[in-house]
C-alpha cells in the first residue's frame, strides 16, 4: 500500500514537471472568462479581441524562463572540481604517509608497455 502510494506520487510529480505548459493552457481554457474580465491587460480595449491572450503568453514565458533556470542550475551541479598540486611527486614510504595524512591520495598513471603479450607455448 505504501509503495504504491509513493510510486503514484512520484509519477504525478514527474508528469507535472514535464507537462507544465499543458497545465497552463488547461487552466487558461477553464478560466477564460475570469481571465478576460479581470486579469487581461487589454480588457479596457475590446477592439483588440485579446480575451486574455496577453495573460496566457505572459504565463508561458514565465514557465519557459523557470524551466531554463532549472536546466542551468542542473548544469552547474554537473561540473566536477579537480585538485591539482604543483609539488613534485617523489614516491617513498614516508612521502606516501605524508600524502595520506594531508588528505591527498597518491595516484599513479598506468605505465604503457611496448611488449606484445604472447600466450605461453606448450
Could you explain the architecture of this structure?
With about 120 residues, the protein is mainly alpha-helical. It has a domain at about 1-80. Helix content is about 60%, strand content about 0%. The chain has helices spanning about 1-20, 20-30, 30-40, 55-80, 95-100. The radius of gyration is 31 Å and the shape is elongated. The mean pLDDT is about 80.
How is the topology of this model organized?
Blueprint: H1 2-18, H2 20-30, H3 32-39, H4 53-78, H5 93-101
User: Helix- and strand-based class?
Assistant: mainly alpha
Strand content: under 5%
The general outline is elongated
| Share of helical residues | 55-70%
Task: Give average pLDDT, whole number.
Answer: 78
Q: State the distance separating the first and last CA atoms.
A: 64 Å
Low-pLDDT stretches: none
**N-to-C series of helices and strands:** HHHHH
C-alpha-based Rg, rounded: 31 Å
Query: How does the major sheet shape up?
Result: none
Question: Would you report the number of β strands?
Answer: 0
Number of continuous helical runs = 5
Amino acid at each position: 500500500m505504501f509503495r504504491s502510494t509513493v510510486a503514484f506520487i512520484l509519477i504525478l510529480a514527474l508528469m507535472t514537471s514535464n507537462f507544465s505548459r499543458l497545465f497552463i493552457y488547461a487552466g487558461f481554457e477553464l478560466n477564460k472568462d475570469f481571465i478576460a474580465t479581470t486579469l487581461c491587460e487589454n480588457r479596457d480595449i475590446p477592439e483588440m479581441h485579446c480575451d486574455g491572450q496577453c495573460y496566457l503568453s505572459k504565463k508561458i514565458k514565465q514557465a519557459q524562463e523557470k524551466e531554463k533556470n532549472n536546466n542551468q542550475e542542473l548544469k552547474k551541479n554537473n561540473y566536477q572540481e579537480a585538485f591539482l598540486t604543483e609539488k613534485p611527486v617523489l614516491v617513498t614510504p614516508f612521502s606516501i604517509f605524508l600524502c595520506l595524512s594531508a588528505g591527498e591520495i597518491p595516484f599513479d598513471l598506468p605505465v604503457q608497455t611496448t611488449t606484445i603479450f604472447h600466450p605461453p607455448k606448450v
